[in-house]
Amino acid sequence: MADPKVGCQLIVFGKRNEDDLPGVLRDVASAGFAGVETGNLTQRMPMQAVWNLLAEQGLQLAGTHSGYPDVENTTKLEQSIEFVQGMGARFVICSGVAPGEGIAPYEKAAELFNEAGRRCREAGVTFCYHNHNWEFAEQNGVKGIHRLCELTDPELVKLCVDVYWVTVGGESPTEFIQRYRDRVAYLHYKDLRDGTFTELGNGTIDFRAITLLVREIGVEWVVYEQDKSDLPPAQAARISRRYMREVLGL
After folding, report:
1. Is residue 28's pLDDT more than 90?
2. Cα 4 from chain centroid?
3. SS3 at position 62
4. Beta-bridge mates of residue 139
5. Would you give the DSSP letter of residue 34?
6. Exposed e or buried b for every residue in 25-64, given b needs 16+ CB within 10 A?
7. What is the distance of C-alpha 238 from the center of its chain?
8. Helix axes 104-122, 74-86, angle to 10 degrees
9. Residue 25 contacts by C-beta under 8 Å, 6 or more apart in sequence?
10. 47-56 vs 74-86: helix axis angle to the nearest 10?
């Protein structure tokens, strides 16, 4: 299979995304990324302005990422779909099942996600759920993430696997990807060291094994994500991109 495209989640740049988005995109492009994952930027500026900013740097939109309330809200879901369509991208990513007692929130979310996935498919885009660690907590012997996958249609609801949070949740990323390989469509490459985030290659996650699976499955995008760094964000992004290129061959 062809290698995946390599993107950067802009979260690592923090508030600078609001203050200096053109500069952020220049840094991302100079680090060697092919694309970016963002929130719905059309809530801040016209679609054409977003297109122009990315095109100036030779970047693509990998996908847009929003929270559970933005999927519950059908207007916001439609706006995310329109943004992805308009940018020539494919992925609408959601994270954060609504909190609640036991496994019931996941059962409720499954119904919502099936409908969102159906709407995305009708529009020619792909709906993905992004995991954190709390979905792996057992509720009367059942883990929320597995119940969610059991109740959702794998043709409608794909997975954006965050390997850091799978690890923190107590499971093996490679085993999790293998188990759900029919619905793994997109990955977040995020490394773990001393209980927190670090640049790719500086932590303990086995990205070589993960990348073998990614190539085997034929994932379209792998996206570097680092919620925070002790380094300047542009430097953290360059270190991580270099690791992906020189060690993983991506």
Report:
1. yes
2. 14
3. strand
4. 142
5. S
6. bbbbbebebbbbbbbbbbeeeeeeebeebbeebebbbbbb
7. 19
8. 40
9. 36, 53, 54, 56, 57, 59
10. 40
Complete domains list, the chain, with CATH: 5-246 (3.20.20.150)
Question: pLDDT over 70 for what percent of the chain?
Answer: 99
Residue that has been written with the tokens 């119940």 in this structure: 147
Evaluate whether 110 touches 142 at the Cβ level (below 8 Å).
Answer: no
Structure tokens at 125: 């885009």
Q: What is the dihedral of CA 60, 64, 38, 162, to 10 degrees?
A: -100
What average pLDDT does range 119-134 have in this prediction?
Answer: 98
The contacts of residue 119 (CB under 8 Å, 6+ apart) are 77, 78, 81, 127
Report pLDDT digits (tens) over 186-215: 999 999 999 999 999 999 999 999 999 999
Q: Which two tokens stand for residue 196?
A: 């927190």
Q: Predicted confidence band at 100 (pLDDT cuts at 50, 70, 90)?
A: confident
Q: Give Cβ neighbours of residue 108 (< 8 Å, ≥ 6 apart).
A: 98, 100
- Asked whether residue 88 carries a pLDDT value surpassing 80, the answer given is yes
Per-residue pLDDT reduced to its tens digit, 162-195: 999 999 999 999 999 999 999 999 999 999 999 9
Q: Which of 239, 246, 181 is nearest to 210 (CA)?
A: 181
Residue with tokens 């249609």: 153
Give me the torsion for CA of 153, 185, 201, 196, rounded to 10°.
Answer: -40
Give the DSSP letter string of 48-84: HHHHHHHHHTT-EEEEEEEETHHHHSHHHHHHHHHHH
Distances, alpha carbon 94 to alpha carbons 72, 142, 194, 216, in Å: 10, 22, 27, 25
In total, the chain counts a number of residues equal to 250
